[in-house]
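During the second year of the project, the team shifted from modelling isolated chains to modelling whole assemblies. The rationale, set out in the original proposal, was that interfaces cannot be judged from single-chain predictions alone. As a representative example for this report, we include one of the complexes processed in the last quarter. Its constituent sequences, exactly as entered into the pipeline, are reproduced here:
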Amino acid sequence: MATQTTEEPALVLTPPDPVPTVAPAKAAGLVPVDDTKRTELQRRVDDFIDQLVAQDANSPEFGKRVDAISNLGAREIREAAGQSNRFLDRPVKAMDQESGVGADLAQLRRTIEDLDPGRQGNLLEPKKLFGMIPFGNKVRDYFDGYKSAQSHIASILKRLQSGKDELLMDNAAIDTERANLWTAMGRLEQMIYLSKEMDQKLEDRANELDHSDPAKAKAIRETALFYVRQRSQDLLTQMAVTVQGYLALDLVKKNNVELVKGVDRASTTTVGALRTAVTVAQALTNQKLVLEQITALNTTTANIIDSTGKLLRSQTATIHEQAAASTIPVEVLQRAFQNVYDTMDAIDTFKLKALDSMKTTIGTLSNEVEKSRGYIARAEGASQNAQGGETFKLEAM
Amino acid sequence: MSRSDEVLERANLTLERARERHGVVAPRARRRREAEVLRRLGRIAAADGAILLAALVFGWFVPLGLGGAMLVMALLIAATALFALMPVTREVAVEALVQAPIKSLPAQTERWLATQRPALPAPAITLADAIGVKLDTLSAQLATLPDDEPAAAEVRKLVGEQLPELVRGYQRVPEPLRRVERNGRTPDQQLVDGLKIIDTEIAAMTQQLAQGDLDSLATRERFLQIKYQGEE
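Output from the structure prediction step:
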């Protein structure tokens, strides 16, 4: 059938998969630390351990350095944690169906349904008063309906466009947030590297001291090494949470991208249906259906969405041909409406699936954030104890 | 090194030290002083102009005579003296810093810190100047920050309490003891290290306060890329 050619490729919106739980053990190594930084960190660790070992195990200086270890990475953790409080906002906001684009799409669907030629009965049947006396023209009345609906549709489409801008803005904000997170993750990664180095070297040094100075070896194992391992665990846990948040932001972004595609397609198919109506009206009733508001909108929409716009233009030519040639132009119109419905159905199924992904993600994420709260409190306490005094440069660059 | 080189070197060091102490006396302090002088000159000019105008108008109707002229002269001198000396710029008291509104707090602390300069050891002076510059930036940022914001409380604690307390604590230590080592460190060192921490903390606060603005600028730019260049 000739109408087949007007069919656009089916709209497929893929909902992104939910973010998996990231195990703390696997969280390290996701962000690269470059070699110059590695050597610098190694140097810091060596300096620190040399100084530590040089002190008497009972001196306040030794204690001060151990305190510095218990405070290791506190700033980096605080930074990353501060951002993780905002992780949850975005997915939760993205799930809010009743506002913005979702509401506008629902309204567009209702308006389009009112115009659906399939719901008007047989349009070509002569209209009769009391079912007997021929009165007026059903087709003409039907196309008059477009004129009254056009300003409403135009305003919905305009709102959809600004809704789309909001989604894009959201994505831009997500990109900024992700860039910040990436930096925070880089610093965490450096601290993880530093704590691992420290762990290894303290262990080696304690083994060396076992013979010459067993008391110091014991002090190193029981205080310094103990704190290093504790802090390593804290750093890894925070890293896991941050990585998960990073992935969750990506999920929201992908979601938005798909939704933008949906909005674009809904706008073009709607405009396409209205244009078809104009042509069909010409063919059926020989009346010129003037939908200035939609035509004006059509040009802007087509300009904004270039690829679909092209599709739309080539489509118009075919519609023209078909409407003129076809004996049943109403069917062509019907098909145009079906396009709109298909788009909206695709969006609806997408949203349902995306909602699932989002819920799962929020679940895992809030679990992890909750888990990390405990040691953040510990880190806060430690950093308050360590006000003033010498700083030992145990921080990321 | 030849002898002349040595002499030159020493002269340079002395010059540097002198510059540190007096030369660059925080350009902001000088600017403030110049502005104050201009303000006073303006006031004097306005007052004298008003007196002369009044005398002119009065003399139009009633001849002033010699006594009147003398009176006008006396008035001019009195007004000039009054406005040259009168609104005494009060020294910022440390106690007042605690109650100062957050918007003017950094500026007041900066003024107070500038008056403390002579009492500080040389390395602390450079730091105090650096802190002054940072406080300047901070003041601009705080202009729109509400008083009851948690960030404001943090700034107040650091700039209004910790900084003055540190400097005053140092000043309470008797002069000869300031360079005497105690538990491995001298009070001079402790002051300098404390000021260093405050310096970095103020810088961190500035950065934190600017975070939102930095983010929104980056976001806006990214939005333009996404919308008009079709990036994803």
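Residues 1-6, 302-309, 386-391 of chain A have pLDDT under 50 and may be disordered. Chain A touches chain B at residues 165, 168-169, 171-173, 175-177, 179-180, 257, 388, 390-391 (CB under 8 Å).
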